[in-house]
Amino acid sequence: MIHETAIVDDGAVIGEHVAIWHHTHIRETAKIGDGTSIGQNCYIESTIGEECKIQNNVNVYNGVTIGNRVFVGPNATFTNDKFPRAKGDWEITPITVGDGASIGAGAIILPGVSIGPGAMVGAGAVVTADVPAHKVVMGVPARVAGYASGELAKVTELLQTYMQTRSTAFRPRRLELLAIASKYVGDLDEDTSANLYNMAFSCAWQQHEDFRGDQRIIRELLIERMGAIPPATQKPKGRVAWLLNHMAVGTYAPYKHVHAYLSGMEPCPIYVFGSIRDKEAGELKDLGHEIYHFKGPASAVADAIAEQCKTDNIGALITDIYTSIPLMVFKRRAAPLQVYLSPGFQLFPADLVLLAETQDVISHARHNTDYIPTCVLPEHLYKEMPNKSPSAFGVLTRAEKMSEAYLRTVGKICDKTGAEFHIYGRGEPCWRHPKFKTMGIKNAHEALSNIKVYLDTWPTCGGLSCFEAMAHGVPVITLDHPSVSSWNLFKPSVHQTEDEFIAAAMRAYSDPVYAAQIATEGRETVSARITNIPRAVSGLYKALRRAGWEP
Question: Domains in the chain: how many in total?
């Protein structure tokens, strides 16, 4: 509907079901999408998307692009020239308004500004800088004042609560929270997206029930929304580098300890974006490896790592962790061959996914897979324990990783036995008990010498330290989790219900024969799975070459 007092110049493109009200002028350069309503006394010479609502007295000049489903309040002003003069040439500086954004009455948008999808500009605000997606800005000049989406604010709050508690109460909602988060991660600024991605991924994966099905959902809903990884434009030729989260461990999976590979590889760069322990860093430096430690916001770290890859002439970049920073580095196409060494979650997008010989592949349309020799532990970790008589239960992990449900179960064991539970790792547990003692970070061999029975649970603890315990001959009792039976990994002890877990822990603590049986069986299994380092390293290089890499 076009009011009789409105003027629409020849050449203007007007969609279907558009309403144009009194005394509005649509210039020949304008394009207006279907279902949009434009109020009175407006002047339009640029592009407005579908199903928008432009209120009275709004001028949309050349260079302004308004997306779909955008609300613009009365008397809002878009400016398109940073240095306007009455005479002389005009230099248009574009303004972009993303889908679903809202601009309040009387707001002024200065040239060169981009307003993100779903953002909201307060009435009377003067916007001088880009507005992040789904954020509220207000004031003069406009500043971020919170979330524009109640749904986004709520899911962020819930996921923050999960990260603090690791509660299994989130398991029934894990995919719901993942789906909500995935609606926003592609629109938010990179650093906000990275934080939301890490929390949503942790909740969905650590609480998963369907090992294969949940992986596909996580990839399609969350990882794909983070953005596509561009194809390689160069042949993968140059040095090999590793991208790691923590130098202290290097990997989560027990069958491919990164230190074991690095101890047998040619010297190469190691890019670390998490924590570094001096001991492990010193060992690797002694082997000739170069260690780079990156700190700061996720986007800045990803930029710096990608740039360092170019400086170091990296032909193949290998990571073993599926958090946001490796994904962001891969999106920047840091190396011609980008490789993911899988600790279990296989569907991380990479040019090549390397699995241990013992692991089953989860097929995917964009999943190029190769196998490498199994490597459980570096041989220097496989050694006898000192002659001690430990009396405590214990675990080696970051304290904040352990779920409240797991800690409450351990608390029951402490109550029944009177023994202490020692946590060797950084941070504080989300649930406290008088018998819990946080011991801090210690050498694994030293820590395990003080543990009588190792209480493990996957995935909130689990991993390499569990296998280190078995290699040292410490009995390991594990609490069952649905993912464990789906993995083609050695499973310590017998998977049990919570009651059986408590009973087995108490028996291992009080019955030396039973404890020795568990320890011996675990040690024999670990010993059988150890691959010598030359074979493991050779297998890794062969897999890279099959993917086209050349040194």
Answer: 4
Q: Are residues 116 and 187 in the same domain?
A: no
Compute how many other C-beta atoms are within 10 angstroms of the C-beta atom of residue 161.
Answer: 14
- The structure tokens 């087995």 sit at 504
* Closest to 239 in 3D by CA, of 168, 173, 310: 310
In DSSP terms, 137 is beta-bridged to 121, 144
User: Model's pTM, two decimal places?
Assistant: 0.79
233 occurs within a structural domain: no
β-partners of residue 53 are: 37, 71
Looking at the fold, whether 127 and 183 belong to one and the same domain comes out as no
Question: 358 and 375 in contact (C-beta within 8 Å)?
Answer: no
What are the tokens at 406? 């797991």
Do 216 and 280 belong to one domain? no
What does the alpha-carbon distance between residue 417 and residue 433 come to, in Å, rounded to a whole number?
14
Per-residue pLDDT tens digits for 412-440: 999 999 999 999 888 888 889 999 999 98
Q: How far apart are CA 291 and CA 282, in angstroms?
A: 10
DSSP 3-state of 351: coil
Query: Residue 472 and residue 13: Cα distance in Å, rounded?
Result: 75
In the predicted model, is pLDDT for residue 11 greater than 50? yes
Token pair in block for residue 416: 């029944």
Q: Which two tokens stand for residue 462?
A: 């689990």
Give the structural domain span for 309. Answer: 239-375+534-546
Can you tell me whether residue 172 is helix, strand or coil?
helix
How crowded is the C-beta side of 127, counted as CA atoms within 13 Å? 35
User: DSSP string of 475-505?
Assistant: -EEEE--TTGGGS-S---S----HHHHHHHH
